Structure prediction request, 315 residues.
Amino acid sequence: MSDTRLGFVVVRVRDVAAAARFYREAFGFEAGTGASVRFEPVPAGQVSKPGTELGLSVGDLDAAHARALAAGARIVREPEEGAAAYLDPDGNVVTLSQLPRTLRVAGVDLAGGALAVVVLEGDRVVEAFRCETFADALLVDAVVVAVDIPIGIPDTGARQADVAARRFVGPRSSSVFTTPIRAVLQAQTYGDARTVATELTGKSIPAQTYALRRRIMEVDEYAHRDERVIEVHPEVSFRELAHRPLHSKHRLEGLVERRRLLEEASLEVPESAPRIAEPDLLDATVAAWTARRYALGQALPLPEGHTARIGAIWR
Prediction:
């Protein structure tokens, strides 16, 4: 194997100080750093000709493009497919390339009367916080936001996603509640909701389910406008991750089991997060795990064969 290494690159310019200033303002680049690039004046009597090309990697190509134009760089190639090229004042070419971005996704779980949000970047939890509204949760920088709240409120009958999810989790089926029909959720009082539910479905509605009506309608509204949002269920996701039924998360062995599964999936989960209980932290994290699978095209829907983003519980 050759032990040859790049020592330096010389960029010939008419004015070293002016070139250094231009590269600093246009590209945020200081000569003498990185790949040992240095500016040297064109030798006396020699006509400066273009010929040197510098390749720089940037974290945000769009922002770098705007910066280069503001500093007077001339465009050789507009930003396309993660790269752009420019001319410096001496005719040298500078190519900017977008650095690969680590996939960022988020999982959202109910946490008492609020929401627990976990942001996963690669295999690491980089944010974990509690917020009051789903609008606040959607402020995260994430390509997919997976939430443990029904999306796609039925007008009649039971949602096939709920039916399939209960079947999938088996012994933990009671954790998947039936999504009320829209008319029930729109009832102004619990008494009215019970009446409407009984008349239209033949069954009443639990008080706990009715208490979530504003949250369900809030998430459903945002999900229809924001294509990043998908529905998940922590028990479904953990069942998919474990390939077997789990102990209850309300027991210590269930929490230990869930944390171990996440760690075995190479996820770096914090020991704790401010104002978020352990069960909610783990549920939001596994929701983020499913969000990543969805972003990579690996997530599977319940019911099987469902193709639309809305109307499925993804796993």
Q: What stands out?
A: The chain has two domains: 9-43+51-98, 104-179+212-314. The chain has a mean pLDDT of 91. The domain at 9-43+51-98 is CATH 3.10.180.10 (2,3-Dihydroxybiphenyl 1,2-Dioxygenase; domain 1). The two ends are 46 Å apart (CA to CA).
